[in-house]
Design brief:
By secondary structure, the chain is α/β, with parallel strands linked by helices. It contains 8 helices and 22 strands. A hairpin with a 2-residue loop joins strand 21 and strand 22. The two termini are 35 Å apart.
Length: 392
């Protein structure tokens, strides 16, 4: 499930300097959306590239001519109704929602991506949010004297009708919103001036999207020096932690944990951004759960990093180095008895995770246990498929 972070930056949070500070931090942190007033859309566009949602408070429908560049800059990516209306309690809710001015505006502007903003002031507002969700691409709900229960109700009732955006004031509340009912809200709307809270909320979003893998121990059955092959070093744009690496293998169903070059050596400086991954034919796991051949990687691609506990995160490839180097063939037996292999460079700086700790590939021997991600499935163009494929 893809999560998103919205940052509230309309005139209720302060003057333009306050709003600009929130927007700038949101841009730098990697937030997905900012929610502003329509009058600020063009100014936001000048600050940087981010999705812009704008409150519509007058009910007017403006059709923008795409040929008019200046007007396009002032057009939001989505409009939101509810401010100074029924959604925030400024106008009383009608007894019959079919007479709602907010919902009428939402439906009338169906050619544009629309959203509804609802403060949950009671059960009637919860029902109003449910009704708005039928037409809104984004349904923003902000609790007042509540935390979990109304959000649970809305998650259960709205389902996939809309992107449910939960109002929060800090990263801890965002984490709760993403975890509620084990499904969580699709997004959060953060109302905070604290740059640390904005950055931390984006981190919470990323953590919520990441998978945790069940890594297993495979027993080494053969380590053989072979000839030279085209070896790939994957240099990322991130600094890897000491217990992080990548999952690499000659067979997509069995990928071996290969450590990043974070360890110091008497002979060569550490390269904490690098994983010496193996030969060009090998698979590497990607953040979407797929695989790529090492030979396919190029600058700008995303690869998956993993630590020994199976926690994952993503990294951008900055450079790929392919050179001829002498190699080892490492064969191991998965817990189910299946045999998988990979090729790794014959060098002391390439280390794998064993049950006895980090170990250079040059010291591996039969009987060692290597950390392995095993997935009993075939792959076609990197995607898991239900078919029989023999790899040996």
């Amino acid at each position: 499930m893809t999560r998103a972070v919205w940052v509230k930056a309309d005139d209720t949070v302060g003057d333009w300097d306050v709003r600009r500070a929130r927007i700038t931090t949101a841009l730098e942190a990697g937030a997905d959306w900012v929610l502003v007033d329509e009058a600020d859309v063009e100014r936001v566009r000048e600050l940087g590239e981010i999705n812009v949602a704008a409150f519509r408070t007058d009910g007017d429908v403006t059709v923008i001519d795409d040929a008019e560049d200046e007007d396009v800059a002032a057009q939001p990516d989505a409009f939101v109704v509810g401010k100074e209306g029924e959604g925030d309690g400024t106008i009383d809710l009608p007894s019959d929602f079919s007479g709602s001015a907010d919902l009428s505006t939402l439906r009338r502007d169906s050619d544009l991506e629309g959203g509804a903003y609802v403060r949950i002031l009671g059960k009637d507002y919860e029902s109003f949010a449910e009704e708005a969700a039928k037409d809104a691409e984004h349904t923003i709900v902000v609790g007042e004297d509540w935390t979990i229960i109304p959000l649970e109700n809305l998650i259960a009732r709205i389902g996939e009708e809309t992107d449910l955006v939960a109002g929060v004031t800090n990263a801890e509340e965002a984490k709760t919103a993403f975890e509620t009912l084990e499904i969580g809200s699709d997004a959060v709307l953060l109302d905070s001036d604290d740059p640390d809270q904005i950055r931390r909320t984006v981190e919470v979003r990323d953590e919520a999207e990441r998978e945790t893998l069940d890594l297993e121990w495979g027993e080494v059955v053969d380590v053989e020096q072979i000839g030279s092959a085209d070896r790939v070093c994957v240099d990322t744009g991130s600094l890897l932690e000491h217990d992080e690496g990548m999952l690499i293998g000659s067979m997509a169903r069995g990928l071996v944990f290969v450590h990043a070059e974070t360890a110091e050596s008497p002979y060569v400086a550490s390269r904490p951004f690098r994983v010496n991954a193996g030969a060009v034919h090998a698979y590497i796991r990607t953040p979407d759960g797929g695989t790529k051949y090492l030979s396919e990687l190029q600058s700008g691609d995303e690869v998956q990093l993993v630590d020994r506990a199976g926690h994952t995160r993503e990294a951008i490839v900055g450079r790929v180095k392919i050179e001829q180097r002498p190699m080892f063939r490492v064969a191991l037996e998965a817990p189910n008895g299946d045999r998988v292999e990979t090729l790794l460079q014959n060098a002391e700086t390439i280390k794998v995770a064993t049950s006895d700790g980090r170990k250079p590939v040059t010291e591996l021997e039969a009987g060692d246990e290597l950390l392995l991600y095993y997935e009993d499935t075939a792959r076609h163009f990197g995607e898991a498929v239900e078919e029989s494929i023999i790899e040996k």
